[in-house]
Amino acid sequence: MLNFALCDDNLNILNKISKMLESIFINNSLDGKVVFTATDAESILTYSSENNVDVYILDIDLKSNISGLDLAAKLREHNKNAYLIFTTAHLEYIMLAYKFKTFDYLAKPITIERLEETILRLFDDIKCDSKNNYISIGTSSNIINENDLYCIKKQGMKLIYCTRERSYETYSSFNKIETCLPENFVRCHKSYIANINKISNINKNTNIIQFDNFTFCSIGPKYKVNLMEVLNNGNITSHLECINS
Q1: In the chain, how many domains are there?
Q2: Are residues 98 and 196 in the same domain?
Q3: Residue 225: which residues within 8 A CB-CB, separation 6 or more?
Q4: What is the pTM of this model?
Q5: How many alpha carbons lie under 13 Å from residue 82 in its C-beta half-sphere?
Q6: How does pLDDT run across 164-200, given as a tens digit for each residue?
Q7: What are the E-state strand segments in the chain?
Q8: Which domain holds residue 23?
Q9: Of 23, 45, 50, 219, which shows the fewest CB atoms inside 10 Å?
Q10: Same domain assignment for residues 7 and 94
């Protein structure tokens, strides 16, 4: 799922964009959600420091001492991969906005047709760009930020992608997806692939991995040596709470 956060000093416009987005998600079967809206820059900065946001839609003229461009610069300090979309009635800002790796620029008043065009292109861009940090689930429109994905579980003919908020199911196999996954996803069991960046604890006696959302998966004997080599060679073990030997 792609998490969207919006910032506009005009509450009516903010609510309108939010409703248009929800309509676009539903009508096009897109896995997106408006997780936060704000009329001031400080609120969205506070939210973003504690929560994952994939797409920001920011008004440039926020009628305050912090503009949408200033806000974008601050957001980029801790989130270099998020998509930025700017909105404004002042066309002279368009060239300034693109220096922040802007995905698109929407002139006000924003129509649902123009917004939909941008959102559909954004989802297509994520699916087609193998260098970004998003993972597509099979042939569906579901897209997951790899930082939200803890593990992938094989259950019969299905693969289950486990995130904090929900699980995604698709008919596929590990053989088909392993080569397409980022290097931090490592096979740890015949039925599990783990995101080693999300591991908080490994018990080598019971062969259990604990993730930082307190979910668990197993380590298979066949995969244990390779898993520990990957963890040690990547200096991942220094970030774990505990490895019980």
Answers
A1: 2
A2: no
A3: none
A4: 0.75
A5: 25
A6: 888 999 999 999 888 888 888 999 999 999 999 999 9
A7: 2-7, 32-38, 55-59, 83-88, 102-107, 134-136, 143-145, 149-155, 158-163, 167-171, 185-189, 192-195, 199-203, 208-211, 216-218, 242-244
A8: 2-132
A9: 50
A10: yes
